[in-house]
Design brief:
Mean pLDDT: 87
Number of helices: 7
Shape: elongated
Radius of gyration: 27 Å
Number of strands: 12
Largest sheet: 5 strands, mixed
Bound molecules: dinuclear copper ion
Oligomer: single chain
Helix content: 25-40%
Order of helices and strands: HHEEEEEEEEEEHHHEEHH
Distance between the termini: 41 Å
Length: 330
């Protein structure tokens, strides 16, 4: 039986315990000091009250031992909070390599989600229990915030940016999903649910419904439809850079700088191609701002991510050999 007013939301992810332990520690320390200050306040108010009109207290000129004590002890406590907090922070912000990537697009006033296999959902996300899920979060209009209290994750959905969060659900069940950033009149109704399922039930759920188009396949189709393929050819004869094996690699720019070809860079290069032109190429690419939706951008990025150098055997287009990055990440 759940309490009517639970102290904290249910703990349904592997991070929840960590976050709660740190939170309770900080709450405990804060409470301890608050109580200490109240008691001291009360005691001093009585002990050192003015007893008569001509009461003149003795002057005090400080105490080194006292000042050192009240500096060093709080410093030590703060250092513990900082190190512990940083540890949890890094854990929360570094998705494991085996995580499945779900793309999240916030829009006034709904959440649009897509599974790595292509299934789409609105205001609802089905995930298998025990599996790490990485969320790549963006927005197509204003700032929203993806908040699942039971997983202790909250991440802003910012237009033009990809923020990531991850969780590993530990308990089957249905959990609230909120928008935690005021985004307009229907903000409070921008809610949904996350359904954590048995891994087998999740597979069954995935198999139901019409066979979806995977983001990579959708991206490949767009790549042809939008004529990207005429300039970004797999050989180096195109007017644009070869995209095979470029993802998450460093590229040299025409202005002498460098950039890592991550999601954000690829997105920018599609909507604002002149921003960071690769060295050796002319800024001839037209902008696709307004012509491709956030979902289409995600599909294009998935496709470009999938363009890896072929392993020893394969049918992918031949490309110039380059420094390998090991097996491709999906
Ligand atoms: Cu979206 Cu509040």
């Amino acid at each position: 039986m759940k309490p009517v007013f639970p102290f904290a939301p249910e703990r349904a992810s592997s991070l929840a315990g960590e976050v709660d332990a740190l939170f309770l520690f900080i709450l405990g320390i804060t409470a301890l000091f608050a109580v200490g200050v109240w008691i001291a306040l009360l005691y001093f108010a009585i002990r050192y009250r003015r007893r008569s009109n001509d009461d003149r207290p003795a002057e005090i000129h400080g105490s080194l031992a006292l000042e050192l004590t009240w500096t060093v002890i709080p410093l030590a406590i703060m250092a513990v909070m900082f190190v512990w907090g940083a540890k949890v922070f890094f854990h929360m912000n570094r998705p494991p390599d085996d995580a499945m990537t779900v793309s999240v697009v916030g829009k006034r006033w709904m959440w649009k989600l897509q599974h790595p296999t292509g299934q789409r959902e609105i205001n609802e996300l089905h995930v298998p229990r025990g599996r790490a899920v990485k969320l790549v979060i963006t927005s197509e209009d204003t700032i929203h915030s993806f908040f699942v209290p039971a997983f202790r994750i909250k991440k802003d959905a910012v237009p033009g940016r990809y923020n990531t969060a991850w969780f590993r659900a530990t308990k089957d069940g249905t959990y609230h999903l909120f928008c935690a950033e005021y985004c307009g009149t229907e903000h409070s109704r921008m809610i949904g649910r996350v359904v954590v399922m048995e891994p087998e039930a999740y597979q069954t759920w995935l198999a139901g419904g019409p066979p979806p188009e995977s983001p990579v396949a959708a991206g490949e189709k767009l790549f042809t439809e939008l004529n990207c393929i005429t300039c970004h050819r797999p050989d180096s004869a195109g007017r644009g850079p070869v995209l095979v094996g470029i993802f998450e690699r460093q590229v040299r720019l025409a202005d002498g700088g460098t950039a890592v070809a991550d999601e954000a860079y690829v997105r920018e290069s599609i909507v604002n191609p002149a921003a960071k032109v690769v060295a050796g190429y002319q800024p001839v690419m037209p902008t696709f701002q307004g012509q491709v939706s956030e979902e289409q951008l995600i599909a294009l990025i998935a496709y470009i991510r999938s363009l890896q150098f072929p392993p020893a055997v394969g049918t992918a287009p031949a490309a110039a050999p380059g420094p390998g990055r090991g097996p491709s990440r999906q």
